[in-house]
Amino acid sequence: MNIEELKKICLEVRKDIIRMLGEAGSGHPGGSLSAVELVVALYFSVMRHRAKEPDWEERDRFILSKGHCCPLLYAVLAKCGYFPAEKLLTLRKLKSPLQGHPHNLEVPGIEASTGSLGQGLSIANGIALAGKLDKKNYRVYCLLGDGETDEGQVWEAAMTANHYHLDNLCAIVDRNRLQIDGNTEEIKQLEPYAEKWKAFGWYVIEIKGNKIEEVLSAYNEVKKVEGRPSVIVAHTVKGKGVSFMENIAEWHGKAPKKEETEKALEELK
Amino acid sequence: MRTTFIKTLEKVAARDDSIFLLTADLGFKLFDRFRDAYSERFINVGVAEANMIGIAAGLALSGKNVYCYSIAPFLTMRCLEQIRIDLCYQNLNVKLLGIGGGLVYGLEGTTHHAVEDLAIMRSLPNMTVVAPGDKREAEALANESVRYQGPIYIRLSKEGGIQVHKTTPGLKIGKGFIVKEGAGLTIITAGNLLFTSKSVSDILESKNVKTTLISMHTIKPLDIKLLERCLKTSKAIFTIEEHSIVGGLGSAVAEVLLELGYKGIFRRFGLPDRYGPYIGKTEYLRKKYRLTPKAIANSILRVLNYK
């Protein structure tokens, strides 16, 4: 798939996210919108996977550690054909499998149930370890929020991945610099951020995470890394694509109202 | 108990390469044989319990049958949310081996006493909770656990206990085991007070009080059918456990008995709902908390108005 096609998908996914959240009346637009390129590139270009065979043993695995951004993942999975796109508008509704945080026993394509921050990278470690021991070629990708890495468990997992030389594991940090209560540096300083990962033994790439070209090239680069895990620190814009949401912390966990939804969709044309 | 359990697991691991054993840097020397024989399937994750549970979940999602080992309070409380979401919510095949169940680590102090673990684990949906009463029960439950689907919390105590069972009993997870049967009075126990409970029953018998003794090694799911039977034949039912009286075996049995309409005498023997103030060897602590055979038997006789 070429760059233009990927950009088009990103735009459509952004619209799906807005529609879903507008319809649901609650949820997390900011971090869903900031990570669109990171996830679209994986599912439409980088990962080997089969929508019609979600349990295919050789598939690459994706763990959404920042589970609150599942509107993004649901939109991407639907676009890939894991389930009908009509389901998207049932987000957070009664009887819908599309819960506010993803559950692997409910939705095909969801590898792990997440929603409490900090837990995904450990699970990714386990899957990557199993892949190594079983001599499988699959790769494991794990998307974390930058605020999420306040959690100590992330660093327990970071140590383990390095210790076991998990070069089949790639973490992606959506470095949008905002968490619920404001700027990450004001709440609990993360910088020097890339250096932290380096000190834990990881191969680190820093990119502009909303530039699909940079995203693709980073994913290609990490595939060549041997003997250690990789992390892509993706500098992104929270709320990317919707002017009134961009870089505003309050849009972390607030759904757009009717007029706001319309305005956002207008901007995403 | 833990040595027996791990030895049993070694035997199973020889023919089943899905068995993994994870430890958070505990069990010094205990795992040497397992590690030497199946080095790839033994992982010391370091002193990081939360990460251990996550790794176990990832391995289980990849089709492995995973055992996680640590001291019971660290294993059940430090990483409670990982157990809840990674294991129970996803209903994964991960077995938690909590050692030092009860007051085994008496001298180490309250940080190491496992007295709330059964209550906490019992509250989690999908979680099965078992506590073998001696080595032979540990061996039986180790074999059972391998075939069992879904998360289990297995509460183990240290070696040195006196064996109640002469041979390995045919235990089934979810089915209580009748150690001895007598009319009128039932003692139900779980875990490492099995021998104590047997001694209580012996003392009572010497006073001509016949007792039924049940090893309720599975606290969840509780064997309701067996309780129904007890309630029909007993005028008094007692639970004995080395656990807080809040939320453990006693609570579980009480909940069921009340709903079944039991109207007889019922008492829980366990640890009081407070920390400390005593630090000492297990035997000393049991005396202080009146969990010795004599103290329990006397209490039962008093309740029964026996002179």
Structure description:
By secondary structure, chain A is of the alpha/beta class. Chain A contains 10 helices and 7 strands. In chain A, the strands form 2 sheets. A 5-stranded parallel β-sheet of chain A has the order 1-2-3-7-6, with helices on both faces. Chain A is globular and about 50 Å long. The mean pLDDT of chain A is 97. In chain B, 39% of the residues lie in helices and 21% in strands. The mean pLDDT of chain B is 95. In chain B, strand 11, helix 10 (249-259) and strand 12 (265-271) form a beta-alpha-beta unit. A 7-stranded mixed β-sheet of chain B has the order 2-1-3-4-6-5-10. In chain B, strands 7-9-8-11-12 form a 5-stranded mixed β-sheet, with helices on both faces. With 307 residues, chain B is an alpha/beta fold. Chain B has 12 helices and 12 strands. Chain B has 2 domains: 2-156, Thiamin diphosphate (ThDP)-binding fold, Pyr/PP domains (Rossmann fold); 177-303, Rossmann fold, CATH 3.40.50. The interface between A and B is medium-sized, with 32 and 28 residues.
Secondary structure layout:
The complex is a heterodimer of chains A (269) and B (307).
Chain A (H helix, E strand, L loop, with lengths): L2 H22 L4 H6 L1 H11 L14 E4 L5 H11 L39 H14 L6 E6 L6 H12 L5 E7 L2 E2 L2 E2 H4 L5 H7 L3 E6 L3 H12 L6 E6 L22 H10 L2
Parallel strand pairs in A: 1-2, 2-3, 3-7, 6-7
Antiparallel strand pairs in A: 4-5
Chain B lengths: L1 H14 L3 E5 L8 H6 L4 E3 L4 H13 L3 E7 H7 L1 H10 L4 E6 L17 H6 L5 E3 L4 H13 L4 E4 L21 E4 L3 E6 L4 H13 L4 E5 L2 E3 L3 H10 E11 L4 H11 L5 E7 L10 H7 L4 H11 L4
Parallel strand pairs in B: 1-2, 1-3, 3-4, 4-6, 5-6, 8-9, 8-11, 11-12
Antiparallel strand pairs in B: 5-10, 7-9
Helix pairs in contact in B: 1-7, 3-5, 8-12
